[in-house]
Amino acid sequence: MIEEPPRLTIRRQPPSPSAALLEAFRDAPTGWLIDAMSGRGAMDAGVKPLAAGRFVGLALTCWCGPNDNLALMAAVARASPGEVIVAATESFAGAGMAGDLVVGMARNQGVAALVTDGMVRDRDGIVAVGLPVFCRGVTPNSCVRSGPGTVGLPVVVGGVPVASGDLIAGDADGVVVVPQASLGEVGRRLAAIAQAEREIEAAVRAGLTELPEMTALLASDRVRWVD
Question: What is the pLDDT of residue 5?
Answer without folding.
Answer: 80
